[in-house]
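INFO worker-7 received task bundle
INFO bundle size: 2
INFO processing item 0
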Amino acid sequence: MKKLLLLLGTVLMLCSCSSGEESASGETVSLTLVSFEESRELTEQVNLFNETHEGYRIEIQIYGQDDADRDDRIEKLQREIAAGSGPDLVNYGSHYASNYCLGHYTENLLDYLPEDWQSVYFSNILESFFMDGGLYAIPVGFSLSTFAGRQDMVGNRERWSIQEMIQVYTEREEDIILYPGETKEDVFWRIFSHNMEYFIDWEKGRCSFDSGEFRDILEFSNTFPDMLRITEDYSPKTLFAEGKTLLYPISVSGIYDICRAGRILATDEIAYVGFPVGGGYGTVIQPSSLVLAIGAASEYKDMSWEFIAQFLAPGYQAEKLNRCLPLRRDVLEHMLEEAGNMDYAVDADGNETPVVKSEILFEGEESIEIYYMEEKEQLLRLIDTASLNDAIDYTLYYALQEEAQSYFAGDKTLEEAVDVIQRRASLYVAERM
C-alpha cells in the first residue's frame, strides 16, 4: 500500500489535472462513485469534475435500483471494499448512519483536511461524525434540531434531562400542551430518535436501553393521547402566540430559520432547551443529503479527495448548498452579516419597499414575513454547543419503535418492553462491530 501511495504521489506531481493534462498513462482513468440515492447536486459536481480534470472521469453507480433493503446494500458495499474491488467514492445520502463507518471500510478524511481545519470549519460539527477517533465520512453541510420555549415557561436554560423536562411539564398550567401534535408516537419520536445515539456505543458494541432515562422517555410518551382530536378552529399559530404550548420544535436548515422561534412564540426571551439528554447540550446535528467518503480500496484516493473538496470550497458552500448550513465558519458568518441588514427594492418612482427575505408559513393561515435577522449570536451559540449526531440507524429505530408501540397499546408492561428493546438492540449493535 505504501508503494502504491508513493507511486500515486509521483503521478500526481507529474500531472496537474487542473491544468488539463492527461493522466500518467495517457488514458482516461475512471473513478467509481457509489451513491445510495440519485442527487442533482451530486451529478452537477461530477459533471464539473469531469470537465475540469482531463484524464480522469467519475462514473456514478446507484445502489438503490433493486429490491434489496438499505442494510443489504451497505453490507454489499462493505464486502466489495473488503475484497479490494470497492468504489473510489461513496455517497451515503440522506439516511447515513454512524455505524456505516464501523470497520474502516472508508478512508480517514482527517488526513486530507488542512492543518487548520478546526478553525476553517465548525470543528464540533465534524467531530460529531467521528468514529474511532477518525472522520470516515463527511457531510457537505448540516442542520440542527432543537426545542425552543419561552423563558418564563421553561426557564433560562440551554439543556435539560428527561426528568427536568417531565418536572417542567408537570408543573405547567393545566391548559398548556407540550406542543401541537403531541401524540404518544410523536413525542417518543421527537425525544428518543433525536438522541438515540446517546444510548449506543457502536465502537464497543453496547447499548443502554435498560437505563432509567430510556424508561422515563417511554413512560412520559405514554401519557399523551393515541391520536389528535382537532376541531375546525384549531390553530397552532394561535397556540404558540398565546403561550398555550410549552415547546416549539424547530429545525434550522437555513439561517433565517433561527428567526422562527421568537416570531412564533411572540417574545424575545427564548430558551433553546434542546431535547432531553443525560449529558451535554440537547441540540442535535443532522447531516445534509450528501455524506461523502473515499473507499479504502481505492487506488486514486488523492483524486477522490479533489472531488470531495469541491463541496467544501467557499463558492459551493456559499451558493450551492441545498437546505442546510455550511460547514465553513467564514461562509456562515458572511451570510449572517448580510442577513442582519434590511434590504429595499426601489420602484420606478423611487419609492423604497423592504424586501422579504424569508417567510414562516402556516397552512391556511397568514404567513409571518422576515425582513432581517437579529439572532446571529443565538444561531452561532446553537451551532458551537451542538455535539450529538442525529445520523441514526433507521433499521434499529423501527425495530425499537415496534416494541414501544406494543407498550403504548397496553400489550406489554413498561419492564417487558424495556427488556425486549434492550435485547433486540444489544444483538443488533453487537452484530455490527
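INFO item 0 finished
INFO processing item 1
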Amino acid sequence: MEEKISVAEISRLREAAEEERKTHQTIMRKIKQQKTGEADLSPDEQMKIVKRGNATEIRSMLEAFGIKGTIDEKVQIYIYDNIIGYGEIREYMLENCQLCLNLEKRIIDKGMHKYGKKHISPQAEVYLLKQSLTKSRDLNDISYILEVEQYIARDELSQAGQVELMSYLDIGYGRDSLIDKCEQCVRDYIFKYKALSLEAQRLLIKSGNHNAIMDYIQESSKGLEAEDELMERGNRKEVEAYFKRYATM
C-alpha cells in the first residue's frame, strides 16, 4: 500500500522550498551585483555560500570573484580540503582562480602534478624553488628537482623566480649529482626562454658558472645587459664571446 503524505507535511515542504528558493535567488542576485560592481560579498558571506553546498552558487561566486583574487583564503582552503561533494568546484578553482599563497604552498608541498597547468604566483615560484632544493639536499633525492624542471618546461618564471633560480648555480653544498642537476635546470631555462631580468643576469655572472654564463651570452634574445659585471669578472672567453655576439646584434 502506498504511503500517503499529509496535507500538513505538504505545507511544510512547500514552505521550506519557498524559503530555499528565496535564499538562492538572494545569493544569485548578490553574486550578479558583484560582477557589475554594485556589491561585495564579505568573507563570512562567501563561506556561508560555500557551506550551503549549492554547486551553482559556488561556481557563480568563483566566476565572479576568483580571477580578481578576492575569494577569501579560508574559503579557498575549505573548498580544497573538502573533496567530497566539491570535486568539480575544486578543480575549477584550481584551474581558473587566483589562489592565495598559503594554498599554493600546500599544493606545492603535495607535488606540483596536483596543481594542473595553472601558472603560480611569483611568491609561490620562489617557494617551489627553495623547497625543491631543500628536500633534495635533506633527503638525498634529486627527484624533487623534477618538480622545478616540469614547471619551467611549460612556464616562464617571473623576475622573482628567475632570481631564485640563479641560486641553483651556487647551492653551497650537496652531492655532485644534485649540483649537476641544478646547473642543468638553469641552462635548460636559458636555452628555452633566452631571457633573464637584469638582476638575474647579475647573479648569473656572480655565480661564476662559466657554462651558464656562456650559454646566456650566446643564446639570449637581447644580448647580455649586465656588461659591467662581466667586464669586472674579466674571463677572457666570456668577454670575447660577448663582443663577438654584440657585433652581430
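INFO item 1 finished
INFO post-check item 1: The two ends are 91 Å apart (CA to CA).
INFO post-check item 1: The longest helix spans residues 7-35.
INFO worker-7 idle
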